[in-house]
User: What shape does this take?
Amino acid sequence: MCRDCQGPPPAEGDSGLENCAAVTDTKYYVSEYYEVKGVDQMKAELYAHGPISCGIHVTKEFDNNYNGGIFS
Assistant: This one.
């Protein structure tokens, strides 16, 4: 479900969904495709252009053991 959320940002551990409303029948399309690397570039893109999409290549260890959160 897509949601449109307003601030303030939720506290750590809170979902923040109380400040969100469902958005129905809205389609979003990719208008540009280019490479962004690292946290700082990702933050800059988010600030400048809004949502980004990304993918990751994973190992079998990740695939077999990831259950959520930060994987080390």
User: Anything to note?
Assistant: The chain has one domain: 3-26+33-65. The first helix runs from residue 38 to 49. Residues 3-26+33-65 form one domain.
